[in-house]
């Protein structure tokens, strides 16, 4: 078959496809509501012309290969060497009597026919290629046999001629006989060739017939589907027309009602306007009358005042009147109370010029500039520059200088400033000094070499009104910018700020820079800015006695970062894992943590997250080594000896220093050392290229800078390597191949730190000096060196260690679940704490037989106690079981015997505590009475009985009776004490009966109940568990069975029962939906009335319980619903509707079913929709629980019996999917696959991917 396939591939595909004729797409020829009969032509597959044609002249006696079979819209015949013909059925006719909408084009049918044609064409490609290959092979075999026979007989003839040359008669006879044999052999070969061709043609004919039959069968199915679809389309069109008419009628009615309401509203508004106009006129009349009354009163007041003046003028004045010297209210305006002014400016300023406080000498130099002549013909140019020295240290100094070159002698103003140190602060103070130094009427141009200050001046001063308040208030040095803005606005002269290039041989800029540097090195008094002379910002934040000059949010973020960093560096594990935090090159170290990605990016995925977690644990010394696992799970790890060397305890330091890893470390080290030259050359080339780009950028900007000299990388010698690792402990031993890494040395850093990904800063300094390269090149090479060590150590040291540990864990039976489960056992002692008692009491959910029966009815058919075999076992019966009565009595007597011991201990502790309190009070000088020692009096038997009067069953247990608390019904029982509950009423009783303080009684009771709880767990609960486990083993119940999820039936699991349950709930859902519908209509009516609209009162709708006939009619469009409703086990086997009961069980809600329900149940569409939604939802939920999940359980059980694992089901299948014996299939790259009908493919896709047996097959 492979030979045939490869020969078929040699045939030209263009020649084959050019002869394929595809029929025109079939569509419904109906174009009017009255559908005429639809005739669908049936494409027939023709194998091609006859095979009995005239052979070509070049190949005598060789029949021609027939062309590729084509589709023909009319029936065709197949001519073979034998007189037999092949015919196909006649086309079928489809008629639909029902009316259709104007658009009757059925694209589904067209696409299905096109897909069918494509599939048939694909299926015929293989037999055509097989036939062509077989013909070629037959012709080749024929030619070979003919050639062999011709050679054979030619040789015989020549031999006979040479032997019988002297006997012509015998020679003629023998030659005649030889010719006859040759002719017979040729005829025999032709006969065999003809038969073989006939067989090949028959195979091809059968393939063509199979395709014709398949296509005819599919066309019949497509026609039936087309008929159903067109009928439903016509019915849907009719329903839509009816709905459209009814909706139009409703809209007309609503328009009429709306128009009537609008008219009523207009009339009501006209009436309201008339009433408002009348009220307005009344109000105006009343106001006029009030004005007249006020005017009359004013006239009377004038008359009275005039009379009083006449009386006063007649009197003689004995004392002169004095006018106050100033108006107090005008001279001292009150400030608003909410306004918070900044604190007064600190320091000892002696002179103030505007908002600046400065020394007298510097003030004098500023006044010299202010007193110069004003000339506004051209603006005066001032140069300003700032200087920042010792940045990042306590000796930081920032200063500025201003130079005026317009005078005969250059005038200079210089000074220092303090606060938040930055070059921008110095430049800003220089700009403020330049503006205040110039005469107010003079137009000035200030030239700076700081682009950021120039940009901020344009935004915060020149265009301050257009800047958002947040930008103004949150900018750095916002107060100084506000003062500068007020100074500039108050000047009569204009101010312009221009940027110039710094250090570009500009005379004024160079003088200003020199002045700023001189001022920075001087000890003059810093200039201060009085922020109270601006009104834009009224409140400033303070920190450590100074004003916060940067953005407050930025300051808080910095403080939070510093606080977190301080907390991180203070952790003991960080100090233990990283000896010197300041001596770490953190950029490289964090690059390893983030797997060579940028530190501040948001790149992440699951793999990256796991690797980052590993790097962080490795950096902090928190890898899950055996010593940490033993501390977490002492029950699983009894020892923490390394599983590779079996010599020492394995911790985070031993992992990298293990003797078994010494050779690996040496190999990794040598490989990394061998790559240093390669990394050095790369880093040097990158460094030279960067310097070259900087030089070119400077030249393009017009700056004169020296041409950079290229730097070369010199391969370091072995001595250089040794000196480069002088600060790394164990590096010399590893470099020389010694197995001992760093046992005898105690340096700050070891080779193990490099393997963990830590890059020491001291090592970077050494490399830069030893290798004679700039710091950036050494940093790059060291970064790659340590990164290579860290990556290789993880692969070749850590992962083999994990493999060895996991192998040991498997031998010990330690699973992944055991390692992640919570350990609740003792870690240092076996004493049961009171918190554990309370936790155990709070659970209240011991795994009893009753609890198991409720969860796993398939495993626990009964819940009878396995100890007494008398009663049902629940959480109460565990402690009251008759088989545990004697044990309870023994525990009780042991605890009662220890009460005196506990009482004496508690009393002694109480007396000692009171004595310490008395001594402490006396030492503090307080007069307190000396405490009287308290004695513990052993309680009598009657005291014990009275002390347990509130505990049911205590008297019976105390007397040794096997009945615990059967006949009593108190609040608390002995079983509650056994569970660890300490009643508060019992504490009060003990304090009164034993005549002791409450604290002593509490301590004794705590120990008593704790002892009962611990002993009950050991002697009652654990034997009960042993008995239950023994019974489970006899029943074949494993631990996996108890923890697996139970998905079996709990009451009923049949489709019929699910259906009946849902049908029984229809009335309940209908009543609920109807009530909700009526309530919603009532709320709408009330809302409309409140808005003044006149709407008819809604009539309440009632839900009428549907009859059985209504149910049947409501499911008329659902196949199998009648059978399920009647209890038949076959839901939808014999019916072929559009929807079936299985579709409802899958959660599909048909729209046609909603229309039926609304008509059958005589309810609005919304009520029917709500009820149908709940009905289908209930079917879907119950079907998933009671049909699908049990099916999954049965399938999984079968898969387990067949040895099919979950990995087998998810792995990719790469084997053959079919062969030629199964029929002609699709030609794929991987082989041949059987043909699946298009409808089956769509149906399987629509299921949503259920893992059925057919899908798995």
Write up this protein.
The protein is mainly alpha-helical. Helices cover 56% and strands 6% of the residues. It has 46 helices and 22 strands. The strands form 9 sheets. Strands 9-8-7-10-11 form a 5-stranded mixed sheet. The protein has a 3-stranded antiparallel sheet with strand order 5-6-12. It has a two-stranded antiparallel sheet with strand order 1-4. Strand 15, helix 21 and strand 16 (749-750) form a beta-alpha-beta unit. Helix 20 (718-724) runs antiparallel to helix 23 (761-770), helix 31 runs antiparallel to helix 34 (984-993) and helix 38 (1066-1090) packs across helix 43 (1165-1202). It is extended. Residues 1-104, 316-347, 739-744, 828-847, 962-968, 1129-1134 and 1218-1257 have low confidence and may be disordered.
Short structural description:
The chain is built from 46 helices and 22 strands. Helix 3 packs antiparallel against helix 4, helix 8 packs across helix 10 and helix 19 packs across helix 24. Helices cover about 55% and strands about 5% of the residues.
Structural class: mainly alpha
Amount of beta strand: 5-15%
Radius of gyration: 53 Å
- End-to-end separation in angstroms reads 26 Å
Q: Percent helix among the residues?
A: 55-70%
Shape: extended
Mean residue pLDDT: 76
Number of helices: 46
Unreliable residue runs: 1-104, 316-347, 739-744, 828-847, 962-968, 1129-1134, 1218-1257
Q: Describe the sheet with the most strands.
A: 5 strands, mixed
Order the strands across the largest sheet as they lie in space: 9-8-7-10-11
β-strand number: 22
Catalytic activity: Endonucleolytic cleavage to 5'-phosphomonoester
Keywords: Endonuclease, Hydrolase, Metal-binding, Nuclease
Biased composition (Pro residues): 54-72
EC number: 3.1.26.4
